[in-house]
Amino acid sequence: EGRVLVWLTKKVVRRVKDHITEISQKDARYLGGSEVVIGDELDIEVDTAEFGRSAAQTAKQVVMQRIREAERDTIFDEFKHREGTLINGIVQGDSAGGIVVDLGRTDGIMPYSERIPREQYRKGDRVKAFVLEVRKTNRSPQIILSRRHPGLVEQLFAQEIPEVSDGTVEIAAIARDAGFRTKVAVRSNDPNVDAVGTCVGLRGYRIQSIVRELDQERVDLVLWDRDMLRFAKHSFNPVEVLRAEYDETNERVLVVVPEEKLSVAIGKGGRNIKLASRLVGVRIDVRSPEQYEEEKTAFSAQEEQEEVVADLTCLPGVGESTAMSLFAAGFDGVEAVAAASAEGLSKAKGIGPKTAEKLIQAAKKLLEEEGY
């Protein structure tokens, strides 16, 4: 009661060099019994009455410092285990680094960059946040909170939907534009469970509770599919996708939707198509049927031109520029050049009568060669 007990830990050695940290075996056995051997450590009670005022003050400071360090370590360990989970707190106000949130044993900080755009916080407001990171500092641990991170949505699903929590329904991918729209791809690990319907809930109750927590951010539920094209189609739900095909040349998925749904599929500022691309993990372009046909026709014409130019450059002295001139003049290959007249061929830009005659002869010779 009101007493402070102090022990000094000393190591048992053969020959004492430091009287503060070491003790001889003989003295150690006198204090601790005959079982003490060299190498043991012995805690020896110190008479605090021998301490001067200055020493006592120093000891007090050291003890208080160690207590604070132990408390910091305890708080760090407690919150480190909560990284990647949700936490509830009360807004305390603004600071230079962001919003200060009271978490009970300590405060967390929500950087301005981790807020949901347009969301306002007042002192005393209750807030649910995602524990983004817990950092050890020289002072108290720094707990970084977020309401912008996709993990917030994932954890809300686990909290509100038992089938997600127990693994029956799995979140396969999330693409989020915080404050505006989020796409969540789900799949079922039970053939008897409808992944999308389960997340929506009876009369939409489950998904609406999540939307309310996200301050009315729109949440699109997408059925995940291992087939990239089917997954791309699902990512535009409820917009009807007429067709989806992979363009290897441009490494993209081309999606065709009805003309009247084109603006909806693209979304305001391109948000919907950007989120769909991020969700599927590939660039997605959207076209109306008319745009698709125009692009397809233009692509076919481009392919034809490339084939003709490649054919014409087989002629001696004909480079890509000359081949392009011949193609533009209507000569669609070596056979066409061989069948042309010098007068007709010289109508191509940059080709005179003499050059035309040489090209005709070269084309005829090439056609006569075996294997062409």
Automatic annotation (TrEMBL):
Keywords: Cytoplasm, RNA-binding, Transcription, Transcription antitermination, Transcription regulation, Transcription termination. This is Transcription termination factor NusA. Residues 84-148 form the S1 motif domain. It comes from Candidatus Coatesbacteria bacterium RBG_13_66_14. One of its GO terms (biological process) is DNA repair. GO terms for molecular function: DNA binding; DNA-binding transcription factor activity; nucleotide binding; RNA binding. One of its GO terms (cellular component) is cytosol. InterPro entries: DNA_repair_Rad51/TF_NusA_a-hlx, Hlx-hairpin-Hlx_DNA-bd_motif, KH_dom, KH_dom-like_a/b, KH_NusA_2nd, KH_sf_prok-type, NA-bd_OB-fold, NusA_N_sf.
